[in-house]
């Protein structure tokens, strides 16, 4: 493998403070095939990147996800390293991300930030949010990944093109991780350094708003993979509501007060909740049978090759 076969893909939105240095660092490591997909930055990011010798393309839509999806269509190199442009990742760690792919062990490598991050790299809220999101992901997909939201990854062009990606914002990393699981790609994690964002460049991420969007993406995408989880949560919420109203009705009944309407509501809550569990079980059965059929077809296709 030649380093020219590796495309360093950097999405940027107003990262003038760090983009020049980042490109220089990758060049020092011997990577000169650098592709910046810029979100029409107003601080001269594109100009700086071009002056440093990167290929710069302006994204046609909005959001990090749209930029990534556009870039995946334009890249021609067989290997891709994706890295944020805010100077929080180290170029010299790129070879360790590539290693599992070049050795044929993995299709997709995630740089795990959560093992050796610098003080101040994560705010408390971001750290808690990250952990919660990874736990939710593990429960929904039964895959132990530590850092699905990492912005430093390596993959083959072939494997990324296989994924069905639609998310335009910061949910893109979640969607990539989910799709890797659904497409049965071999995903590996490698510990990396994570540095604090430079003071000059503002974050584009809103931890609460984007955190909720990311959480709901994991949940909604789980419908086809783990329907018991998807419907089970709805069922649980309704049964819990039914238990609360039911307890209130019974307690009041002991004091000779009867709540007819609330009793009806309680029954509806519990029946609806139980129905959700049954939906979950049936969907689970369908998904399992479907999976068996698909793997049988795949096996037959392999035998025919
Ligand atoms: N092209 C493009 N890039 C974007 C857009 N939004 C963010 N980015 C880039 O995506 C990368 C990640 O964004 P950040 O704001 O650093 O998000 P984060 O790393 O999750 O959050 P912080 O911890 O605050 O840095 C950076 O290089 C941004 O410049 C966008 O709309 N378009
Ligand atoms: Mg960042």
Automatic annotation (TrEMBL):
An example molecular function term from Gene Ontology annotations: glycosyltransferase activity
EC number, UniProt record: 2.4.1.-
Residue ranges occupied by any Glycosyltransferase 2-like domain in the UniProt entry: 7-152
Keywords of this entry: Glycosyltransferase, Membrane, Transferase, Transmembrane, Transmembrane helix
Pfam families linked: Glycos_transf_2
Signal peptide: none
Electron transport found in the keyword field: no
Record-annotated membrane-spanning stretches: 228-251, 257-282
Keyword Iron: no
NCBIfam families linked: glyco_TIGR04182 (TIGR04182)
Name of the protein in question: S-layer glycoprotein N-glycosyltransferase AglJ
Organism of derivation: Methanosarcina acetivorans
Gene assigned in the entry: aglJ
